[in-house]
Structure formats: structure tokens, C-alpha cells
Amino acid sequence: MISMSSKKVIGIVAVVVLFSAFGILLAGEWAPSIGYVGLFRYLLIAAGFVLFAFSFVGFAILLVSIAQERKGGVRADFGATAVKLAREIARFVIACIAYVGSGFVALAVIVVFGEGDPTPARLLKLLVVLAACIGVVVLYRIYRKKHPVSFDMLGKAGVAALFVLLTMFGFAAGAFQARDAVIDLLHGPQTDLCWLVDVEEDRATGRYSGFSQDSIVMTFRTVDERDVVITVAERDSSKLSDVANAEGALRLTYFPESGVYVSAKEEPGGSRIR
């Protein structure tokens, strides 16, 4: 059993890591987006996701340790805990069948009835099925009034499952983003002869728009018909003058995996290249 002092340490560390992850993500979001600095921004965001995952691991450890203790701090018997959890899951499934299942059946028969002719026989069948569905809900509700149950273990298991999913998401997002940045660091930037085919503005909206900066998404097409998508923060748009002034093909230097812009130069006679 984890001691109270250890729980406090784990809780403090988890909170510190959580806020550190948020700070790193915020710093990465507002960092310059061009060149090697832009690639470092990519790594910052990846590190933020991984730290988020580690903070969720800490919270999950605390949750599991609390769930394993009875009142008075005695460790719960694993077998009894498993049986109780299984019983709560079974009751939850039965409740879903009684409430949600009856609702779906009632909705289905109403839809089917609406698709055919409203004959008296079909109307009678509809009323019988609806009455049966309502009866199931009412009878189950009466039974639960007489035999109330709680879902303490299932609730804790659900919260634990949520932390597991958040942890997996954090590690996966960080790993994929870090993978792209590491590959680009190892191989360096790539230069292709291409031309600009599309420009879109990705503007942050909603109440959290202050935490995300607007960006410009540019699509280039190479001479071998490959599309290259580059994302640049709008605050760095002044460094895209070579792209804006190009009248034809240009030499685009970029990091291919992460889509980070490095530079662009207009190709002499590029207006004749297509």
C-alpha cells in the first residue's frame, strides 16, 4: 500500500508535470515556425504531449491506490474487489438493456410503422410493442427502487479507463510528432522544384483561440505531381515574400516529414515550367 506521504509526492509531481506540459505546449504553439527553429517547435509540442501522458500516469496511480483501500486504510482483497466490479458491470449492462434497449426498440418500431400503411393491425402491433417497452422500463425502475445498487467500483474503473485513454493519446501524439521531427533532423531539409497551387488560412476560433495562433497552409505541387503541404504561423508570414512574389516555379526548401518551411527562391524562367 502506498503511504500517505508517497501519495502527496505523486500528486504534487503529477500536478507540476501537468502544468509544465501545458506551458511547453503553449510555448511550442507560439514559437517561430520556420527553419530549424520551427522544427524545434515541433519537438516542443511533442514533448508537451508526452509530459501530459506522464502526468496522467501519476493520477492513475493515485486512483488505483485509493480504489484498493477499504475504509480505514486496509487493502481490499483482490478477489472480492474483482467480484464486486464484475457484479456492477453486469448490473450496468442490464440497466442499459432495460433503458437504452427499450428506447431503441420503441424508436425502431415507430420508424418501421411510419414507412408503411397505417393499417389497424400494424397500429395494434405498434401499441403492443410500445407498451412492452414502457413496461420493461417501469418494472425495472420499480425493482431498482426496492433493490437499490451503487456503482462505486465501476465509476472508479471508468475514471481509470479515461486516464488510460488520455495517457495512450498523449504518448501516441507525442511519439508521432517527435518521429517526424527526428527524421527531418537526421536527413535535413529537402529542396524541390515546384509551384504554389493553393493557400488557406487556418484561423483559431472559439473561447480557446487565445491559446492557438493563426496559420497559413500552403500546398505546392512538384514537377513529378507530388503535393507538398507547408504550414507557417501567420506571424511569420512576412518571411514568405519570395513565395508571394513568385510568378511561376520556385525552389522550395522544407522539412518533408513535419511540413516546416525553410526558404524559397524563384526559378529563373519558372513561368514556363509546368
Percent helix? 55-70%
Major sheet size, sense and barrel closure: 5 strands, antiparallel
Number of strands: 5
**Principal-axes shape call:** flat
Mean of the pLDDT scores? 81
Helix tally equals 6
Task: Tell me about this structure.
This protein is an alpha+beta fold and 274 residues long. The chain has 2 domains: 1-187, no CATH class; 189-272, Beta Barrel (OB fold (Dihydrolipoamide Acetyltransferase, E2P)), CATH 2.40.50.660. 60% of the residues lie in helices and 15% in strands. The protein has helices spanning 4-29, 35-67, 78-115, 120-146, 152-187, 241-245, and strands spanning 190-202, 215-222, 227-233, 250-255, 260-266. The protein has a 5-stranded antiparallel sheet with strand order 3-2-1-4-5. Helix 1 (4-29) runs antiparallel to helix 2 (35-67). The protein starts with a helix and ends in an 8-residue tail after the last strand.
Secondary-structure map:
Blueprint: H1 4-29, H2 35-67, H3 78-115, H4 120-146, H5 152-187, E1 190-202, E2 215-222, E3 227-233, H6 241-245, E4 250-255, E5 260-266
Antiparallel strand pairs: 1-2, 1-4, 2-3, 4-5
Keywords: Membrane, Transmembrane, Transmembrane helix
Transmembrane segments: 9-27, 39-68, 89-111, 123-142, 154-176
